[in-house]
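hiii so my PI (J.) wants the whole complex modelled not just the main chain, which honestly fair. so below is everything: three entries, each one labled with what it is. i double checked the lines twice but i was tired so who knows lol
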Amino acid sequence: MTLVQQLPVLVAVVPLAAAPVALLLRNRHLAFLVVLAASGFAFGASVLLWQQVAGSGPVSYAIGSWPPPWGIEYRVDRLASFFLVLVSGMAALVLSWGRASLEAEIPAGQHYLFYTLFALCLTGLLGIAVSGDAFNIFVFLEISSLSTYVLIAMGRDRRALAASYNYLIMGTIGATFIVIGIGLLYLMTGTLNLADIAARMPAVEGSRPVLAALAFLTVGLSLKMALFPLHQWLPNAYTHAPSVVSSFLAATATKVSVYVLLRFYFEVFGESQVFDRLPLEQVMLCLALAGMFAASAVAIFQTDLKRLFAYSSVGQMGYIILGLSFDSVTGLTATIVHVFNHAITKGAIFMLLGGVALSMGGVTLPRVQGLARVMPLTAFGLVVCGLSLIGVPGTAGFVSKWYLVKAALEGGQWWLVFLVVGSSLLAVIYVWRVVEAAYFHAPRADLVAAVEAPLSMLVPAGLLVAGTVYFGLETTFTVGSAAEAASVLLGVPR
Amino acid sequence: MIGVGQLVLAALLVPTCGAGLIALCHRTPDLRDAVTVATAGLLLWIVAALLPGVLAGDRPALALITVLPGLDLALEVESFGMLFALLASGLWLVTSLYSIGYLRANHELRQTRFHACFALALAATTGLAFAGNLFTLFLFYELLTLVTYPLVTHHGGDEARRAGRTYLGLLMGTSIMLLLPAVVFIAAVAGTTDFRPGGILAGRVDGVALAGLLALCVFGIGKAALMPVHRWLPAAMVAPAPVSALLHAVAVVKAGVFSVVKVLVFTFGIEPLAAAGGSDWLVYVAGFTIMAASLVALNADNLKRRLAYSTVSQLSYVIMSAALLAPLSLIAAVLHIAAHALGKITLFFAAGAIYTASHKTEVSQLDGIGRRMPWTMGAFAVGALSMIGLPPAAGFVSKWYMLSGAMSGPSISGTQWVAVAVIVGSTLLNAGYFLPIIFRAFFRLPVAGDVPAHGEAPWPMVIALTTTATGTILLFFMPGVPLALARQMLGGG
Amino acid sequence: MSLAGHFSYFATISLMIAGLFIVMARGNLIKKLVGLGIFQTSVYLLYVAPGKLIGGTAPIIQEGFAVYANPLPHVLILTAIVVGVATLALGLALVVRIREAYGSIEEDDILAKDRE
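here's the output for the full assembly
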C-alpha cells in the first residue's frame, strides 16, 4: 500500500501520535512545533483526500486489513472529506494564531499540556469524521470531549472550572445517550458498521427499539451540538475558556456533532424513518426556530462579547438544523454550507476577540469602547464578520441564508421565509451593539495606549476574515461540495 | 486601447482605489483633497466616455463571477443606468468641491474618513447603476447602505448614533426582510435574475402574486422612501450638508427609485404588469406619500427637515409615474430622477452654505438673508422652481411629461385621475412651502443686530451651488440626452 | 415473553433513571459524579446482558458446542469503562480544583459566589 492509500487513517493517527510526543517533550516550543506540524499534515492529508474523493468516489480503509463489517472501517466520502478539510484547516490556523494569546492566558509551565490536549481534541474530531463504525465514533467523540473539558478548565478565571464541570456533566450525559442509541441499534442489527447497519435497517425499520435508538441519538447529539434548549453548557464554556480554545471550539466542536447527526439521520436511519415515523421534522423545525429567535434575543442583552457571540452560535445552530428539517437537497445543502460558513465566521470572530483580550485585557462591552480607535484592523474585521452573521450579500453568511430561503420556498413554506430573514434582524441588533461600542465611544482612559494585536495573530485572523468574504463570492468549493454531499445523503442523483 | 468592458470595470475600481489613496494621504489634507477631486474627475471622464457608445445602442457587459448557479455578479450598461451613473458621477465632482469648502470652513473632524467613505459610496452607486442583474443590484444596494452609515453618523455622539440606528435599521431591515425573499423567489421561479427588456416574470407569476411580489420589492427598497418606510430619510439629516446633498438628494435616494424603476421595467416587465394591473395599488400608495410628505414639509421649520420631506414626496413622483406604466409617464420618471437630482442638490448646497456662513438652520431665521447671500439664495430660488415644476427649471419638463403620461391612453381610468389630482394638488403644496422661503429671503428685512454680519459662504461652495443651479436651467432648455436615454430604455433597450 | 424474561432490561432502566435523577437533583458536585457513574454503568449492562446466552460458551469453535456467547459487547464495554473511568477521574479532579478556587463543592454556593 502506498502512503496515499493510508491517508484516511493517518489523518487521525498523526495528531494522536503527536499528543504523547508533545507530552514527553515537556518543552512548550517543541510541543508547539510538533502539534502544529501534525495539524498541518492533517490539513494537507484532508485536502488530498478531498481531491481524491471528488475525483474517484469514496475511499474505504479497513483497519488492520480486517474487511468490514468485521473490522473497523474508515470511510471518507464527500461529506467526510468536507468536514475533514474544515476541522483540520481551522486547527492549523488557530494553532498558528494562538501562541501570543496562549502566552498571556496560560502559565508557561502548562503550555506543553495544552498542546497535548489540543492534539487529542483534534484527533477526536478528525476521527469522528473518518470513522465508519458507530462505536468508534463514540470513542472519538469521548476523546475530543474529555480533552475539551480540560482545555476549557485551563481558563484564567475560576468560573472556567465550573463551566468545564457543567460541560463535563452535560457532555457525558449526551455521550451516554449516544451510546445507548448505538447499543440499541447493535442489539437490533448485530453490527456496528454504519453501512452495514443501514443495509440491515429495512428488516427492523419502524420497530420500537430502533425508534428509541433514533430518539436517544437525537437527544444526545443535540446536547453535543448545543441545539436550543440543550445549549446551557455552551455560553459559559466559550466565555471562560482560553481564547484559543474558544476559537477552535466555536469553529469545529459543535459542527462535528452536526456531521454525526447527518450521518445517522440520512445514511443509517433513512429519511423516511426519521421524518415519517417520528415527527422529527416538526420537532427540529420548532427547536431551530426557537433557537434562532430566543438565543439571538438573549445575545442582544449580553455585555461580555464572548458570551454574546456564544449565544449567537446557539442561534446560528438553529439555521443549521432548520436546513436539515426541510428534508430536501437544497435544505441539506444549506445546512452543510452553513456549517462551513459559520465555522469560519465564528472562528474569525473569536480569534479577533482573542486579540482584543490580549491588548485591552478583556472583551466586555464597556472595555472595548473605542476599539476602532486603538485597534482599527481588528474592529473592521469584527464588522465584516458581523455582516456575515447577519447575512449581507457578498459575505459567506449570505450564501447560507440564500439556500435556506430557497429551501423554504421550494417547500412552499412562505411564512418560514420571513422568519428566517426576520431572525437576521436580531443579528443586526447584537452586531450593531458591538459596532457602536467600537466606533462611537472614546477608549477608556487607561486603554488609550492599547495597540493592535501582534502580526502573528492578525495574519491568521485576517485570513479567516478574508475567507468570509471570499466564500461569499466564490462558492465552487463550499456549495459544490455541500450540494454533492447533500444529494449523496438523500440518494438523489445529480 | 482599453476595451469597453474594462472601462465599465474601471468605473467601479476608480472610486474604490481613490478611497484607498485618500486614506493613505491622511497626513496631508491638501493632497488628500486633490486626490478626491481628481478621482471624481476621472470617474466622470470614464462614465462620459461610455455615453456615446450607449447612445449609439451599445450595451457593454461584463460578467465577473458566478456566485451560485444562476446567480452571477455581472455588469451591464444600459441607457437608464448610464443616465444614473452620469448624474451621480457628475454631481460627485461638484459635491467634492463643495464638501472640501464645507468641511474646512466648519472645521469638521475625521475629514479623511469622510472623503474615503464618500468615494466608496460612489463606487457602490456606480455598481448599482451598472448592475446587470437583480442580485448584483442587491449587493451594491446593501454596500451603499453600509458605506454611507459612517457618513450619516459623521458627527458621532448620541444624536448621530440614534439617527444611524434608524438609518441602518430601516434600510437594512427592509432589504433583508422584504427584498431578499423577493430576490430569492424571482431567482427560483425564473432561474435567473438578469435584467431583460420585457421582464423575466412574464407567464411565471401573475395576478395577486405579482402584485405581492412587487410590494416586497418596492417596500424592500427602503431607499425609495415610500411611506411608511421613509423615516430614515429625515433621521439621516443629522449628517453634514454635503452628505445630505449628494447622498440624500442624489445617490442614496435615487439609488432607491432607480432600483424601483429598474425592477419594474426589467424584472417585472411593463406589459405583464399592465395586463395584471399589478401596480395600481402602487399609484395610490405613492400618491398618498406625495401628499402626506408635502403636508409635513409645510409645517417643518427646520430647513433641512423641510427639504427632507420634500425629497420624500418628490421620490414618490418618480414611483407614481413609473407605476402608471404608460410610456410617457415612464419617460417622466426617468427625467424626474435627473431633474430632481439637480434641483434638490442645489437646495441642500444652499442650506449648507447658509449654515456655514450664518449658522442658521430654521426657516424662520432666514429673513432678509437673500441680500447677504444673493448667489446662494438665487440658486435656491432656481432649485425651488424646479421642485414646484415651473419654467425655466428642469422640474417643469418632467412634470409636463408626468401629466401627459397620466392623461395618455384611449380613456383615462380612475387611477389616472387620482394621479393627475395628486400632481396638481402637490404642486400647490410645493409652492406653499418653498415660495415663503424665497419671499422671506428677499423681501423681508433682517431682524436688526441678531447676528454678526456675514457674506457668502466660501467660494468652492458658491461655485458648486451655482453650477448645479445652472445645470437645472440648462436641463430645461436642453433635455436631449436624458430624453434620448429614457426613450432608449422603453424602445427595447 | 414474561416480565422475568426482561429482567435485565428493567434493572438497566431503573439504574439509568436513578443515575440521571441523582445528577439532576443533587447539588453536591461529588454526588452528581456518583449519579453520572451509575448512569453510565447502566449502559454497560444494556450492552453486556444480551451478549450472554443461556447455555452459551466462550466463542471458540470446537466440536460439541453449538451455542456461543457474543464476545463483542464485552470488548466494547471494556472501552466504555475506560472512557467512564477517565470521565470520573477528570470530574473528580475538576471538583478538587473547584474546591480550591471556591471553597465549596455545593452547586448553590458556587453559583452564589459567581453572582457576586
